[in-house]
Specification:
Length: 526
């Protein structure tokens, strides 16, 4: 029975099947009509979006990208799954790789389907010129090279490394990082001192000369960090457990209700959060290690109830991060420290990392500050927006258009903060959406947070993080954080992404010769 079942499958695959297996002419014509109507809608809505932003685009190289982004957003307003299933039966593209070439892909499918349906000449759509299928990918490679440095391979994945304090005292470490595969050095202005940054830069440039390798400089503005600023323990324990209450004071640590009987009072480094805080809002502390909800607001602050934490409790300490995922925070992303640091950064960095970006207005704020300091040269400074909040994801198209209209631009998926803000269950979905939208706008992406974290810290990777590192190849750059085994991690990551580049580019598998398949055929021949 198994033998005859196999024979039937072979007979079917080689064209011997006499059963009806293809759609009828009517079904194909209906599909053609549905695609044609989709095309008309995408053109209409896409052009409407593009014309709204076109007057503000100063970089001519971004015009095609802005148009393609508009078409991609228009087509993704539709549920394409029913059409995809029908296109697969005809061996046509299911539109699943339309990001960088939205209209070219759609037009090619309609052109082929029209000929399959034997449409009259006047009803047919011409095939797009071949260059339009690859123009978007070439633009993405060009934009990536502007930020990370030139590389002839469009699928090349760059490696960024956060400079540890040791980079200011240990030149050999910096040189080893370059030799291991570092393409861009990240200096986090939230840490260390300006003198240390200066020495790090000196070491990087010295290593460039000695290794003959180019290393771009990325300097990260600290931005507003919402953290616990003070802790008062009127009780006997600074730990809190699930269902415990504690108090978040609006002003001074001593300002709390007279009837408060809890163990801990904390204050927030940015008290403006109380301008919008509501009962029922979530409060997340230390990247999700402590999850709370606001149960009651008073003139002095807010009562918080612990929703979840580890079984042994959580110790509240100064400098722990505070996140308010459901609370709209009216906080400027540029602090006084950032503006001072900017005066230094513009003379040394190839790209500026911009934290807490939520809207087009936030991008415009930085662009204006750059123009004040640099004049027309500001247009050459690359900006990297860190996407780390729900608002930044929701407003990503307008953020891209505002930034890329004036500057070389990239996006960092700050997966740690994004998971806290949006919820861990949504992280993977949002990560994919960011990758798709950025590819549609031909904008390079940096894959960040906890990449090969165990390897960096202990020298031994977990199995899961190897898979994560392999998936990171779909971005134009991967960021590693500092740790005692950072050189080993850079070398390992370079090897992983190099292998994966031969198998996949973005969502598209690259069907190079598969050694397993070749070996299997040889085994069967023998």
């Amino acid at each position: 029975m198994v033998y005859y079942g196999c024979i039937q499958h072979v007979f079917w695959y080689t064209g011997g099947n006499t059963m009806k297996s293809t759609p009828s002419l009517k079904e194909m014509n209906d599909l053609y009509q549905a695609l044609f109507e989709l095309r008309q809608n995408v053109l209409e809505q896409g052009m409407k979006m593009y014309q709204a932003v076109s007057p503000s685009i100063r970089r001519s190289s971004f015009r095609f990208s802005a148009l393609n982004l508009a078409f991609y957003l228009a087509i993704r307003c539709h549920d394409l799954r029913p059409l995809q299933e029908k296109l697969l039966l005809l061996g046509l593209s299911s539109l699943g790789r339309s990001e960088a070439r939205t209209m070219a892909n759609l037009d090619a499918v309609i052109a082929s389907l029209g000929r399959i349906c034997h449409k009259q000449e006047h009803e047919l759509i011409a095939y797009p010129a071949p260059k339009w299928f690859f123009h978007g990918s070439r633009l993405l490679a060009h934009n990536s090279n502007l930020i990370f440095g030139s590389h002839p391979d469009a699928s090349y994945t760059n490696i960024m490394v956060t400079m540890p304090p040791e980079a200011a005292t240990d030149y050999k470490l910096v040189r080893n990082l370059l030799e291991a595969g570092m393409d861009m050095a990240r200096i986090n202005c939230a840490h260390d001192t300006r003198d240390m940054w200066q020495v790090m830069l000196h070491h990087i440039h010295k290593a460039e000369k000695e290794t003959k390798k180019r290393c771009k400089i990325y300097m990260d503005l600290a931005g507003p960090k919402v953290r616990i600023s003070q802790v008062l323990v009127p009780g006997d324990d600074d730990r809190v457990f699930t269902d415990d209450f504690f108090f978040l004071a609006r002003g001074k640590i001593s300002d709390y209700p007279a009837d408060y009987t809890g163990n801990v009072i904390i204050t927030c480094s940015i008290p403006q959060v109380f301008d919008h805080l509501q009962e029922g809002d979530s409060v997340v502390i230390d990247d999700g290690k402590l999850n709370c909800v606001v149960t009651r607001l008073t003139p002095q602050g807010a009562y918080l109830r612990v929703i979840s934490t580890k079984a042994k409790g959580f110790r509240l300490k100064n400098k722990r991060s505070l996140n308010f995922p459901k609370t709209p925070l009216d906080i400027t992303p540029l602090t006084k420290k950032d503006l001072t640091d900017l005066d230094f950064i513009i003379h040394h960095a190839d790209a500026i990392g911009y934290s807490f970006v939520r809207s087009r207005a936030d991008i415009l704020l930085l662009q204006d500050e750059l123009y004040k300091r640099m004049g027309n040269k500001a247009r050459n400074m690359a900006i990297i927006a860190k996407i780390e909040t729900r608002d930044s994801v929701h407003n990503l198209p307008e953020i891209i258009v505002q930034a890329a209209s004036r500057n070389p631009f990239g996006v960092m998926i700050a997966r740690g903060d994004l998971a806290v803000e949006a919820g861990y269950h949504r992280l993977a979905e949002l990560q994919e959406e960011i990758l798709w939208i950025c590819e549609a706008a031909h904008i390079p992406v940096i894959w960040a947070t906890q990449v090969l974290e165990n390897l960096v810290k202990t020298g031994i990777p977990s199995r899961a993080e190897i898979t994560d590192a392999a998936m990171s190849e779909r971005a134009e750059c991967v960021m590693l954080n500092k740790g005692p085994y950072i050189v080993k991690a850079v070398s390992s990551l370079a090897d992983i992404v190099k292998r994966m580049e031969g198998h996949q580019y973005k969502k598209a598998p690259q069907l190079r010769t598969l050694h397993i398949a070749s070996d299997a055929l040889k085994a069967f021949d023998n």
